[in-house]
Amino acid sequence: MEEALKCHGVAAVIGDIKEISLVASRRLQLAVEESAVTGFIIRHAAKNIQSNSFVSRWRITPLPTEIKDDLPGIGFPRWNVELQKIRNGKPEHGMLNTSTAQLLLQKKKCP
Asked: Most exposed among 1, 45, 57, 95, judged by the fewest C-beta atoms under 10 Å?
């Protein structure tokens, strides 16, 4: 993943990693800062979420779909979006809704 993040020919890199050390996360952060490539790490059931050097940490979970205008089918996808950590900012919480091909983030105060 680090080598891909150093490549200026890509727009973004996505890695699926169970655990990552502070040193490894710092190396990835430095690669991102040098190349301006966006890096995403997907972590499932991570044990230690505090020990990393990333700029932000998001938690995204599914919500029940939303059916509009009594249309048949499963409805429009929705997600609960939590910005848990952001450097020099405040955490936020909201809902991401994809009705009519629009993404709407409805901000709510964190509990």
From this structure: 45
Mean pLDDT of successive 10-residue stretches along the chain, which has 111 residues:
90 88 89 90 73 81 81 80 82 76 56 51
Query: Using alpha carbons only, what angle is made at residue 8 by residues 4 and 12, rounded to the nearest 5 degrees?
Result: 55
State how far the Cα of 46 lies from the Cα of 85, in Å rounded to an integer: 15
How does strand 92-97 pair with strand 104-108? antiparallel
Q: Residues near 51 by Cβ (< 8 Å), separated by ≥ 6?
A: 21, 22, 25
Inter-residue contact 79 to 59 (CB < 8 Å): no
Pairwise CA distance, residues 11 & 35, whole Å: 10
Closest CA to 40 of 53, 19, 54, 30: 54
The pLDDT assigned to 103 comes to 56
